[in-house]
Amino acid sequence: MTPKTQTRTTDREDIAKRLLRSSAKASYDPLVEIDWDAPIDRDRYAIRPERLSLYGTELWETLTEDQRRELSRQEIASVASIGIWFETILMQMLVRHAYDRDPTTSHVQYAYTEIADECRHSVMFARMLGKLDAPFYRLDPVAQFLGRVFKTLSNGPLTFSGALFVEEILDQLQREIMVDEELEPLTRAVSRIHVVEEARHMRYAREEFARDWHNRHPLIQHYSRFVLGLVVYYATTRLINPRVYARVGLDPRTARKAARRNPYWTDTKTWAARKVVATLDAAGAISGPGRYFWRKAGLLGRPGAPAAPTAGPGTQRA
């Protein structure tokens, strides 16, 4: 079993005051900050091609450059759809977190501030879908039902570990996007706003998870590991909705199978999750039956596989 490491935490009120000050200095209204009237540049990728689910497969070789760029727009739209889904869950969990606590504290006031941020982010992602000429990629009924159960029954460690997982995955992908001047300006602008504001959310989640996790009864920890593994599995395996492949003329079932077997895609997921995996694994939150779901989702890497490369700006496009 992975040894548990007690993460050092800051006083709850002190960190909340810092985050509130940061929010006052660097918060954005995406409806104002982003030029929504600018046309999409269809000669650019929306995300680096090496991060796409079919990159390196035989199917990838059959696609024209226009189809590859369209696939990039549809895949980033699918990821944004997952973002909207989980941010809606997170907002409800944060309301529950604040419900029994003193609203005069900075800790609760920051929870309200984060809810406001997430509302704006969901609107921003939804607007981006429309600009990319992409639908809202709704999850399948099983995942939708499990999300409804999760937001209703989650405890403190599940709320903040789940939030940290989704936010870290998006953060890694968006940090690449926002600095790459060869990519579509809209996805770069959306990524920049999200990265700045989610840095505060991740600090809040990381501290609150560490503070709560080690005070929980071992049975609660076992339960939380298992449920977290399920949440991680369903969120990760739904990142790319099969319907995106139909938008570029591919058979969804065939393309989904190719993506599932694609070592490049597995390595990308492992790379995107590496920080949150290190944090939660050190705390002992990735073990037992729950660890099976992390591995099955492709987040713990392939045996003997090197880390997915971090390409710099100006990477040659395939």
Can you tell me about this structure?
This protein is an all-alpha fold and 318 residues long. It has a single domain (12-296), classed as Ribonucleotide Reductase, subunit A, CATH 1.10.620.20. Helix content is 66%, strand content 0%. It contains 13 helices and no strands. The chain has helices at 12-25, 30-33, 58-62, 65-99, 106-131, 141-153, 156-179, 185-213, 218-237, 243-246, 252-260, 263-282, 289-296. α4 runs parallel beside α6, α6 (141-153) runs antiparallel to α9 and α9 packs parallel to α13. The longest helix has 35 residues, at 65-99. The termini are far apart. The model is unreliable at 311-318 (pLDDT under 50).
In CATH terms, what is the architecture?
Orthogonal Bundle
Using the coordinates shown, work out and report the CATH topology.
Answer: Ribonucleotide Reductase, subunit A
Described by strand count, sense and barrel closure, the largest sheet is: none
CATH class wording = Mainly Alpha
Give the DSSP E fraction (strand runs of 2 or more residues): under 5%
Radius of gyration: 19 Å
What's the name of the CATH homologous superfamily? Ribonucleotide Reductase, subunit A
DSSP summary: helix tally: 13
- Summarize the helix and strand pattern as letters: HHHHHHHHHHHHH
Low-confidence stretches: 311-318
Query: Which class do the helix and strand fractions yield?
Result: mainly alpha
Mean pLDDT across every amino acid position:
92
